[in-house]
Amino acid sequence: MSLIGSIVSKILHPFGSSEAQAAEAGTSSSKPSETQAQPSSGGGSAPASTPTSGGTSSGGSVDVEAVLNDLAAKNPQKLNWRTSIVDLMKLLDLDSSLHARQQLADELHYTGDKNDSASMNVWLHKQVIKKLEENGGKVPADLKD
C-alpha cells in the first residue's frame, strides 16, 4: 500500500483492514471493535459511545481531529500532528524518515526540491490534510488552506 493510502486508512478507517475483515467475516474477538459490527442490530447509539468511533458523525465522515487527538493522548511522546508531518507519521506508527517523506512527496507529485526538507515537510502536511478531506474526513478549519 502507498504511504498516503496508509495514512488515510489509519485515520479514516481506524480499525485497520485486518480487524475490519475479521469483523466482516464474523470472527472478531471480544474487542471494542465488536460494537462497530453491531449497529445493524438496532444499537444506533452504541457506535457513538465507543471511544474509537466517537469521531464519526451521523453523516459518516470521520472527525480527523478527534481521531488524531485520541491517538496523541495514548502516545507517550508529545507529538504535534497539527503542524508536523514527521509527528503525524510517528503518531500513525509509520516510518517518518527523510527517505519515507521523499517517497510520500513522490506519491503526491511534489515538484519542489526534496532535499529542502523544511519546505517539503510543510507542503506534505498540507497535502495529507487535503487528501484526508477529499476522502471523507472532517478536517478542522484551522488546518485547511
From TrEMBL:
It comes from the Bacteria. Residues 46-61 have a biased composition (Low complexity). Residues 26-38 have a biased composition (Polar residues). Residues 4-140 form the DUF3597 domain. Residues 18-62 are annotated as: Disordered. This is DUF3597 domain-containing protein. It comes from Methylorubrum aminovorans. The lineage of its organism: Bacteria, Pseudomonadati, Pseudomonadota, Alphaproteobacteria, Hyphomicrobiales.
